[in-house]
């Protein structure tokens, strides 16, 4: 059997160059920047004896419908599917980039028949093997592979960020829908009460016991209450449409799921907040994505700088003519270097440096935004919690005042105007009470999202291409 010397020679040359050049990669050595943050939070942190961590926080709501809605949203979310596709694309780019550091081998085979007039027809068969390898002398391919690897990690962090945002949006919409239903019930009760008042007033006007102006006031109050109740029902319908959009399920299925549980606004367990801002920032997948983009930009500076230097390639070929038992081979290195390119390669280095500067500014801006989100969430939560306590007490007192005024009106010792003023005050206080109860839960959800939603560095992407959990 014939054995050509080319493969051994090529293998030996490749191995020697690989060992000699393994550590050679020009460009900056990347170090992740430390977030510039204060030593502690300046906003009041929530203090509660039952504080829990971010992990499995949604289960602390003890609301089966909410848990189901979040699961449905994650299972069929186009947003998560797009994020997953971005990961797959980044992984494919990484594989393609790494392939540039490996030799390429191409096999060929052919057969031809030919002849001339008066001679016999002949058949010629041949087989060949071509191999080439661009030696990564100055680390251009390695730097590009570093950048591609960092972008895979960035896209994975984006997927986690999309998942946290989706769960928070579903939960907040669900809480708003529950609160909207309670407000609609309150408006319906008030509408029923106003309708009874209007009917009684109309009877009294006809009997001459009260002035026609009181009848006009009663009818105006009834129309206003009816308009408010209609608007509130419309708001609830819109929130239900939003849940359909987020979960991908039909309205009857959503309504049936919610009917099996409580109609009250769900109350979550309180979150524990780390006292050190830098620790909280390490829990944010969006910041992790920005940092990985910064690492990729740094690696691309080295790749652009490597393009300024010569490139070395090794190539060889073996061709075997099967009919004539003739073998030809060739092997040799080739060194190339750009002598004049109009400044294109230098401009590429400048562009890479500018991209790094932009990525660094983006990361720093992201850190500032994250700190602001946490601080704002803490301030809103503290304010809403205090206001909710006062609003609940106010609602109870205004309801007592209305009941007393209504009793006096029926006894003839209070005017209809006083009754309607008391009714509007009681309704306004009840609405404020319900709204703040919903806002308090929404503020907890905002804090959950601002703290990273339970994400930790290195967390795996546990989903398939359709976004569903395995």
Automatic annotation (TrEMBL):
<keyword id="KW-0472">Membrane</keyword>
<dbReference type="InterPro" id="IPR010131">
    <property type="entry name" value="MdtP/NodT-like"/>
</dbReference>
<keyword id="KW-0564">Palmitate</keyword>
<keyword id="KW-0812">Transmembrane</keyword>
<dbReference type="Pfam" id="PF02321">
    <property type="entry name" value="OEP"/>
</dbReference>
<feature type="signal peptide">
    <location>
        <begin position="1"/>
        <end position="25"/>
    </location>
</feature>
<keyword id="KW-0732">Signal</keyword>
<keyword id="KW-0449">Lipoprotein</keyword>
<keyword id="KW-1134">Transmembrane beta strand</keyword>
<protein>
    <submittedName>
        <fullName>Efflux transporter outer membrane subunit</fullName>
    </submittedName>
</protein>
<comment type="similarity">
    <text>Belongs to the outer membrane factor (OMF) (TC 1.B.17) family.</text>
</comment>
<dbReference type="InterPro" id="IPR003423">
    <property type="entry name" value="OMP_efflux"/>
</dbReference>
